[in-house]
Amino acid sequence: MNLAAMVERLLGLGLTKGHGAADWSKRPLPSAWLNYAALDVELLIELRAAISRVLAEQGKTDWAAQEFEHLRSFESRPPPAAARQDRWRRTSGIHKVHDRRGLAAVRELWTARDRIAQRRDIAPRRILPDSAIIDRRHRRQIQSIDLVALPVFGGRNQRRSAAVWWAALAAARESPDPPEIAEPANGPPPPGRWVRRKPAAAARLDAARAALTEVSQRVRVPTENLVSPDLVRRLCWEWEDISQSSPDPIAAVEAYLRTGQARAWQLELVVPILTAALTGAPDAGAQGDDGS
Fold first, then answer.
1. Does residue 238 lie within any of the structural domains?
2. Do 109 and 34 fall into the same domain?
């Protein structure tokens, strides 16, 4: 739910629209844009109070506090084991790159762009569009002065960092270990293939999804917010190995989810039902709405 929808739903007010897709790197910013931006923060105090009331009424204030702390401290935590390692492979149009050296160029340019974006606090694609990263013409042995002559590198932001792009391309050409064409496997196959490859895991996933749907409806929290769907899939797929390492299935499920950075409120809600789904046993840890 975006800001405008929350303001309308909780405060009964509508925010002016019209400049969300504008190029905010433009200077000076037009007065109409400044007014548009000011409206985004003018009602935040009132909105915070309204959200706090809703959370208190639903008994979710502590849940929200845990989520805020999780977001606040994300830079100090290592990424979960299930996190995708090669994020640069999400570059739009990467399917057009068919050789390892070309993928090395994509990787190095993406990484350089990401560092600049974080330092300047600017969206990466404002600094260098994906179309420039995958453009095959920059893989020739050219100097930085020639690089900016290419249309995809000719923008003001691209010219500003021409030396950075040249260094990234040089590193790609000299890399002793360019990336493989196919992304290394990281996790289970798509669930649609489970019935054939691992039917027991498919049954566990069906049971887990059904249990999570029931809890989601009861506590009024989307299933994907109860626990990471990717984490649930991995748990169901790997359960045989996980269960063999611990005689206590509840402890095994909790440890696995905790390693995947599930928060305490999530563990309290989903560990009992996921354990039951994985083992096929009655949900002995579940409680009624009155906590009994």
1. yes
2. no
- The answer to whether residue 180 sits within a structural domain is no
Q: Which residue in 216, 221, 215, 209 sits closest to 66, CA to CA? A: 221
Number of structural domains (the chain) is 3
Residue given tokens 């095994």 in the structure block? 252
* Domain annotation covers residue 103: yes
**Distance from the Cα of residue 96 to its chain's centroid:** 24
pLDDT tens string for the chain (292 positions)? 788 899 999 999 988 778 877 877 778 989 989 988 888 899 999 999 999 999 999 999 999 999 999 999 877 777 665 555 688 999 999 999 999 999 999 999 999 999 999 998 888 988 889 998 998 876 665 566 677 777 777 777 777 788 899 899 999 999 999 999 987 777 899 999 999 999 999 999 999 999 999 999 999 999 999 999 999 999 999 999 999 988 999 999 999 999 999 999 999 999 999 999 999 844 444 444 444 3
Q: Which amino acid is at 9?
A: R
Q: How far apart are CA 182 and CA 86, in angstroms?
A: 11
Any domain includes 63: no
Are 212 and 265 in the same domain? yes
Token readout for 51 is 């959200």
Six-digit token pair at 148?
Answer: 């900016």
- Please state the pTM of the whole predicted model: 0.71
Range of the structural domain that residue 130 is part of? 87-174
